[in-house]
Design a protein that fits this description.
The chain is an alpha+beta fold. Helices cover 31% and strands 33% of the residues. A 6-stranded antiparallel sheet has the order 1-2-3-4-6-5, covered by helices on one side. The radius of gyration is 15 Å and the shape is globular.
């Protein structure tokens, strides 16, 4: 596991940033969730916004653990009224669920993220996938 403490960005004194890198394994999803909850509490993010962010991190890291091959990285950036959540992994193109699985059993994660976040973006990078979500944040 690799984590950095929150850093004050030199160009924007109101910015705070933290990074956590973990093996892309389901067992590490709870670590990402707890890291997010604890950090956002330290950054004085209001509880309802913190709860939404933790749920987004849970969904995105669960997907990264399922589809990533080696590691997953969580970046949290609090900047001028917005919380940016970025989860990247070393997986290949986004796989689509098996058709023999009931639709109510899988596939809700990205819908939950889209509902909670003001914006989302999913893109394939040269090293894997990256999912970005942005929340308004009054911290």
């Amino acid at each position: 596991m690799f984590a950095t403490d929150s850093e004050r960005a030199s160009a924007r004194p109101c910015s705070q940033r933290a990074t956590l890198t973990l093996p892309a394994r389901e067992a590490h999803v709870s670590a990402a969730r707890h890291f997010t909850a604890d950090l956002l509490e330290c950054w004085s993010v209001p509880e309802n916004e913190r709860d939404s962010a933790v749920l987004i991190v849970d969904e995105l890291t669960a997907n990264a653990a399922q589809y990533g091959r080696e590691c997953m990285t969580l970046v949290l950036l609090l900047d001028h009224g917005a919380l940016h959540i970025v989860v990247s992994d070393s997986g290949t193109a986004v796989e689509h669920g098996s058709y023999d699985v009931a639709p109510d059993e899988h596939g809700r994660g990205t819908g939950i993220v889209s509902y909670l976040a003001q914006s989302t973006e999913i893109r394939q990078t040269h090293t894997g996938r990256e999912v970005r979500a942005c929340l308004r944040c009054s911290a």
